[in-house]
Amino acid sequence: MTKKENSIQISPKTQKLLRAIPKVDEFFDWADPCAGAPPRILKSEIRALLAAEREAILAGEKRTPSDLSKEKLLPGLEKRVARRLESNFRTVINATGVVVHTNLGRSLLPEKAMASIQQVGSRYANLEFNLATGKRGSRYQLVEELLCELTGAEAALVVNNNAAAVLLVLETLAQDKEVIVSRGQLVEIGGSFRIPDVMAKSGARMIEVGATNRTHLYDYEQAITPQSAMLLKVHTSNFRVIGFTSEVELPDLVSLGKEHGLLVMEDLGSGSLLDLSAYGLPREPTVGEVVKAGVDVVTFSGDKLLGGPQAGLVLGKKKIIELVKKNPLNRALRIDKFTLAGLEAVLRLYYDDKQALAAVPTLKMMTMPLKRISSRAARLVRRIKKELAPRCEVTTMAVDSRVGGGAMPEHGMASRAVVLAPADRSVNELEQQLRDAPLPVIGRIEDNYLLLDMRTVDDGEIAQLAACLLTVFAEKI
Ligand SMILES: *Cc1c(COP(=O)(O)O)cnc(C)c1O
């Protein structure tokens, strides 16, 4: 007995109950239904379960000796063990309509990329081995030529993510020197990426010019000093300044840079290889166009509009990229073989625009015809409407989906959502129950409705989503 139990009066009845709690070893021998579980997990869960029983008894909760029998305790143990054995990484159904959802894993990878990752994970590969010479090779060569071909860049390298790419490039080219950037572009991207902070970490001195809403070419020009190294343009990604605004176009910045012998860099953020304006999306400069405008270096993310794995792509002039490659910091930020394998497979799909649009899930979801989304919504409604009545009203409505990942923040893509209006519980409770489900469903609450935007729900997930809803409503609350 512990000191605490000694110090207070324990009734004979409570003492009897405490003695009825099985010993850990005894319980361990009973627990063969959990036989698949590693013994250390089984033992720690038995201890936790028995400790909880003990506390419940001491707190005066109702128990009889038979509540402490094998039959009564075993189901609780099985539940605990099952929960422990479950992966922390859970598949979820994204019914938010946000295609590049940073919290849900950003881009889904094409099948070809998944096959490539599987292959490189289970077999040896020429990651850093030149098969022609038999000597050490460079991991960047596996994607550099492809990237150059697709964008017109002279050279390329790839690092962990775009934040790393920006840090690495600034550290290589502008440490202890001045970098001129517009006040309208000092952005913060989710997850604490802030241009001024990254700049400070790189050792570059940030020279802000212009005003939040308007920056002119002469603002940059007047800020140039003998210490200046670079003119930086940053894609404002997740926000827009509207109204009386003015930004310097990239070609003008490039001319100014040339005139004064300064480097010109653009952090393009999302970075699309395709012009998606033909599909009703806003017109954005493609990576190829930025390269063509003559920048020395451009960086962008692998898992935003490109639709690949998390990566930071650095493209530009050969001389500049060589310097970046040689920076020891590059080694600390390097990309792993899985990412490279996935990235190469995704890039190969871009040899043909049509192929990319059909096979890269991010592009496919962004350009999905409304008709197709509406028919998904109708399919889900057919599976649940009657079954859920009268506990929940099921309808559909027109909604706007978002690209996400900071891309095209103002643009709503016309979509269709299944609308749930529960009558037997609050919409907040429903939202939480769907998150708690074995296959969690993530929707969004608007007014007093739960909306399931069907743009990001795959055809193959509709039956699972329906089953989840039926189970949640079948459970008494
Ligand atoms: C998203 C974004 C970043 C950060 O990219 P990660 O790949 O998430 O590290 C940096 N700059 C801009 C402009 C962005 O949009």
- Write down the Rg: 29 Å
What helical percentage do the residues reach? 40-55%
Bound molecules: pyridoxal-5'-phosphate
Number of domains: 3
**What kind of assembly state do the chains in view correspond to?**
single chain
CATH level 4 superfamily of the largest domain = Type I PLP-dependent aspartate aminotransferase-like (Major domain)
- Major β-sheet strand ordering: 2-10-9-8-7-3-6
How many beta-strand runs? 15
What's the total helix number?
A: 20
Strand content: 15-25%
CATH topology of the largest domain: Aspartate Aminotransferase, domain 2
Between the first and last Cα atoms, what is the distance in angstroms?
Answer: 39 Å
Low-confidence stretches: none
Strand pairing plus helix content: what structural class? Answer: alpha/beta
Average pLDDT rating: 94
Major β-sheet profile: 7 strands, mixed
CATH architecture of the largest domain: 3-Layer(aba) Sandwich
What is the CATH C-level name of the largest domain?
A: Alpha Beta
Shape: globular
Model description:
The protein has 477 residues and is of the alpha/beta class. It folds into three domains: 8-85, no CATH class; 93-102 and 366-474, Aspartate Aminotransferase, domain 1, CATH 3.90.1150.180; 109-359, Type I PLP-dependent aspartate aminotransferase-like (Major domain) (Aspartate Aminotransferase, domain 2). Helices cover 43% and strands 16% of the residues. The chain has 20 helices and 15 strands. The strands form four sheets. A seven-stranded mixed β-sheet has the order 2-10-9-8-7-3-6, with helices on both faces. The chain has a four-stranded antiparallel β-sheet with strand order 11-12-15-14. α4 (39-58) crosses α5 and α6 (111-122) runs antiparallel to α15 (337-349). 40% of the residues are buried. Bound molecules: pyridoxal-5'-phosphate. Pyridoxal-5'-phosphate binds next to α8 and β8.
